Amino acid sequence: MPPSDFREQLAALATTLGSVETVLDLEGMRKQLAELEGEAADPELWNDQERAQRVTSRMSHLRSDLNRVEALRSRVDDAQAALDLDDEALIEEAAADLPSLTADIQALEVRTLLSGEYDVREALVTINSGTGGTDAADWAQMLMRMYLRWAERHGYATEVYDTSYAEEAGIKSATFVVKTPFAYGTLAGEHGRHRLVRISPFDNQARRQTSFADVDVTPVVEQTDHIDIPDEDIRVDVYRSSGPGGQGVNTTDSAVRITHMPTGIVVTCQNERSQIQNRARAMEVLQAKLLEVRRQQELEEMDKLRGSHMAASFGAGENKVRDYVLHPYQLVKDARTDVEVGNTSAVLDGDIDSFIDAEIRWRRQQAS
Predict the structure, then answer these.
(1) Domain boundaries of the chain, sorted by first residue
(2) Which CATH superfamily hosts domain 3-111?
(3) Which DSSP symbol is given to 316?
């Protein structure tokens, strides 16, 4: 690469990174981190386990975000120093790092687009098998694995609240939480219908099968959300857990199903050992889903006031998100952004960042 081209590209990256640093407000982040470190040093903090976990988790993520930005700034400064020194070896090394540096800064830039009211929240993800029988149940389980592997790749903690196994293979439904700041804003674009086309492993005639699964993504509720659920509005059923489980999980009536009568929303939880724990988890899920209902109602009211006909399409359950074609060719293609990837194995193993980043940019364009 000619030095002039390298200098021009590096200058553009430095400008982009400067804009990102301004939006993220690094000084504000450092101040907040210092405050959290002060809280963590208080020996009384651990008297409230839930608050202590929130403080330490937020502190860890803030420190990680700061380190990420500072590392990128260091790489840009090192490349600039190589140019200033006119050192051919250093310039060659910096030029080789340019594609990786560009990708890393662009990925960080996407974070600055997450400015919605609930974007900073953790994400509650529910996957339901749709049309396609056993293939759809298997597909739902494949999607669940894809998201859990994506979270694992990034070091995000997850917790599975409920898994309802299908009779022959796969799952009827599953609910899990992704425990990292901005998980909801990051995954909101995954909300909708996912379509799989493949040769069915469950068909003895090896015919091509189309299967569907629905992904529901909602923000995790916080104490400030005030979702009031009167006792008379819910029906609570208890039953014995099904499917794989540890000792004691499948031997008592510990699983809980809660039906919210006014909306018809049904949530279940069976992965905890006790009925009390499962009920508490199920109530958390119900509150999150009711929060999303309220959010969608508020969006619709705002659209009416603005005279807008544009719905929040990524919030519609029937909205098609992505096609995953494994036969007669290999391709995964997003229905809204037209991003496509030929390495289907990598996508199903959790390599979905190209789709997620494009979705975030697409949603921002739709909202502007």
Answers:
(1) 3-111
(2) Release factor (1.20.58.410)
(3) -
- Token pair 């399409």 is found at 313
Interval 248-295: pLDDT, tens: 445 567 889 999 999 999 999 988 878 888 998 899 899 999 988 888
Length of the chain, please? 368
How is 114-159 classified by DSSP, letter by letter?
--STTTTS-EEEEEEE-SSHHHHHHHHHHHHHHHHHHHHHHT-EEE
Q: Please enumerate in sequence order all residues whose Cβ is within 8 A of that of 111, keeping only pairs 6 or more positions apart, or say none.
A: 20, 24, 182
DSSP, collapsed to helix, strand or coil, labels residue 218 as strand
Q: What is the pLDDT of residues 23-46, one digit of tens each?
A: 889 999 999 999 999 999 998 888
Shortest CA distance to 210 belongs to which of 341, 127, 340, 320?
320
Q: Who's near 238: CB < 8 A, 6+ residues apart?
A: 253, 254, 255, 256, 257, 275
Please tell me the distance from the alpha carbon of residue 293 to that of residue 287, in angstroms, as a whole number: 10
Residue 154 is encoded by which pair of tokens?
A: 């990034």
Which burial class, exposed, middle or buried, applies to 266 when counting CB atoms under 10 A from its CB (0-12, 13-18, 19+)? middle
Contact present, 105 and 20 (Cβ < 8 Å): yes
